[in-house]
Task: structure prediction
Amino acid sequence: MTTPVNSYEAGKPVTTDLAGQTLLCLRTLTEENPASLESYIKLGGYSSLKRIVTEKSKATDIITAVKSSGLRGRGGAGFPTGLKWSFMPRYFDGVKYLVCNSDEGEPGTFKDRDILRYNPHQLIEGMAIAAYTLGARVGYNYIHGEIWQDYDIFEAALHEAKAAGYLGENLFGTNFSFDLYAVHGYGAYICGEETALIESIEGKKGQPRFKPPFPASYGVFGKPTNVNNTESYASIPWIMQHGAEAFAANGVPNSGGTKLFSVSGHVEKPGNYEVKMGMPFKELLELSGGIWKGRKLKAVIPGGPSTAVMPASAIMGATMDYDGLSKAGSSLGAGSMIVMDDSTCMVKTLQRLSYFFYEESCGQCTPCREGTGWVYRVITRIVNGQGKMEDLDLLTSVSNNISGRTICALGEAAATPVLSFIKHFRPEFEYYIQHGKSMVESKTQDTNMEHQ
Amino acid sequence: MLSPEAIAKIDYEITKYPTEQRQAAVMSALRIVQTERGWLSKESISDVAQYLRMPDIAAMEVASFYNMYDLAPVGKYKISICTNISCMLRDSDVIVNHLKTKLGVGFNEVTADGKFCLKEGECMGACGGAPLLIVNNHTMHEFLTPAKVDMLLEELK
Result:
């Protein structure tokens, strides 16, 4: 027997160590076949949907419950989900849409993937409850094109749910109908921005729209549309089943519930960890096995590259919640924790991130299209030993001129790493410019980039 | 001309949208035709556009915007390897060098026998399994080591 080349096994968890986690969105991980309908139903799955639809629960009551659960948008912005739901027009003559944003492409973010492959039915139920509440007739789950095997798992779950009477026409013999479809991206980070995502659903290139109008009034095919992240929708069934207070109690004030943290980089056990909001960073680091190879922690990007990098000293005492990370000088973002050990060259790391934003800029707004390329070329000049000390001010200035001058938030996202890396690791950049080489002697840091 | 198999698959995707929004299925339709033909020629894109009753240029805009569509031949197996931050931190450069040496090609080049093409990908949303690569857009291989890459290349012969 040969060892399988691919460690990926459809529907089987890679992370089996569940100790220390509080599983709400990934609660089926305790079951043998987590993605199956049986596993989900065994844990009370679809019971809330059935109750809400057959008892004809009031939409306002559901929105009130979501508000008091403390659930905030898990895609990175942290906007209160219940409040967002209240923006959808109650009365509208025509089809309203529901969209799920499963287009994870921000480096370090891979949490929604585990919901899709390990607990797809909880997402489906969450979307169906949202559709009932908001009066949406049709829903789309837009999935990152690169995780194709997980797209297939989710689409299979949709067919399973429909066959079992949880999706489709006249659910539970009532007049509530909801059709939900899987659609996919095909390699464009920008489509994680909700209006670019909507353009993509409509079969166009993913360039963000001017806002306002917001999707709640002008979304998919010009109709009112509610867009939430995968983890946000997947939290809903648990809230409905166990109560808003129980959900909120899993977190801390202002950050209700649990959160999936995607831990990647220099830890012994990279992967997703669903834990209570407000968990001290130290504990989360311990869960993920600590820094690999017995090395020391140097820096952490706590919520994906669009959140500011934090030196070890700043994050060691922080708690993992919205306020905790904001007090410590960064933000929670999507909970995408990228861990760097003391062998990491911050100049080369920033070069790679800058290339990413340059490559992924959709080209619509001049400051981002030109600025991201400019930033990348200046950092590359430094890496090639041709940097000048004034380049650091130039990088800051270009970044500040991208930020806030673009249609979408990708402008800020591209500027944040540059500004925060230089702010916290300026001596390392200065050393590189003065000596033409990295302060951190590391053989593993050749980025092998062959870009022009 | 689209094959009957491709048409059946595209028709299924079209059912996901309102009847007057047929062109919304272009993302899937391009993916389906590319999977069948290996890459998207202008002719292939035009076939898709005609079937979805949209202008050729609108389909071309989509095909050229999203980087998993290939507008030039990529050989039998396209290997897209992620070199973004989480993969880079876990030594994706070692895997890249290994692949380049084994295949004798650089990024965006096809091996002489037309079998492999190496591409540098952007974040694939699976950073917990870094370093990783995707074969022909749809099969991901995670936790790579040079030995695992060797086994994979052997399997793809």
